[in-house]
Amino acid sequence: MGKEALDREVYEAVFSEGQEKERRLQELKEKARAMGAYPASIYPLYRKMAREFPGFTVPAINIRGLTYDFARTLFRVARELAVGAVIVEIARSEMGYTRQRPLEYATVVLCAAAREEFPGPVFLQGDHFQANRRVYLSRPEAEKENLRNLIKEALSAGFYNIDIDASTLVDLSKETLEEQQRPNYELTAELAAFVRSLEPEGVTVNLGGEIGEIGGHNSTPEELRAFMEGFNRCFTGKIGLSKISVQTGSSHGGVVLPDGSVARVQIDFDTLRTLSELARREYGLAGAVQHGASTLPEELFHLFPDAGCAEIHLATGFQNLIFDHPALPTEFRERIYAYLKENLRGEWQEGWTEAQFIYKTRKKAFGAFKKDWWDLPEKVKVPIMESLAESFTRLFEALRVTNTLNLVTDLIPRPG
Question: Which domain holds residue 189?
Fold first, then answer.
């Protein structure tokens, strides 16, 4: 298939509807595989990382909009820098507000990898497969079924890396850490066993858990032990978690100031180092995972591998680059902001300035204006993608994942 023909087929599939959309996406996913792009689990690399930290931190990148162009840019830079250790992910919440279900997301990303002739495995990750606390407390079985259905949908699409997040259920009203973490580790263990029961033959899904909801107090060694000891007691399978997400001072999207700028993130790298070392030494995990750090100044990213951090999740910084890029037409940006003020006014919290409201809600415009984003002319998209490429280059170099392609392909060979 010609490259331009692939571009056209991806676009037409994404904007089809119903069964026709699913059929087109499935066919394209198979075409991408035939062209050399295949989904895989990063589990073998994380097992190696658990035995001896390799000196790099794996970036996990959430793509909320301009998905095909964004992913093509990512894989092009990864190919040029021989990056094999990189994850592409989407969270449960993002699937909703960006209007990207697992099959669509997986197909678009795999086609982007094929289009750029990326030679390594594609690690698709379900980020924050998170229990909704309000729903769970009122109807726990219904929320469990929601999560099981999401897991089934993701696995069938090729998401062989899943982060289970029941940290929303941590009950700080309980006296002991073990009791505080009990709802978290019990549900995490139950869902982990469910994932293992559905694994495709020859695939060990890479699983993560989370001990503290991002944005709360910093995690402690005692909390990590309480969670992992409880999980290990409850988990009925043979292969459990590979990594653990912790809180070290960050927040998703960063803290936005009244003028719309983002406050400087204060990551506690000593906590991150301590928890990563403990996770490896006592529980055989790859290490700790850092969320909510994409608005951190770029000159600090080299500190994550220094701290032994296994994985870092990045979304908002790239979103900000896109929205604030000088190539994005002012009229288009203002049309989005007018939509937010009219349709999402209920999310405008007391005391927020307009700039704070726009910053916190504009991610939801990726779904509402999905086709408009895809239809932006090349004269707009090209400079945005050039800026993204520069950002990826600096990120990959700081996290030290350049020249990891051979390591990854040796551990995770192409399926026969």
Answer: 35-328+371-411
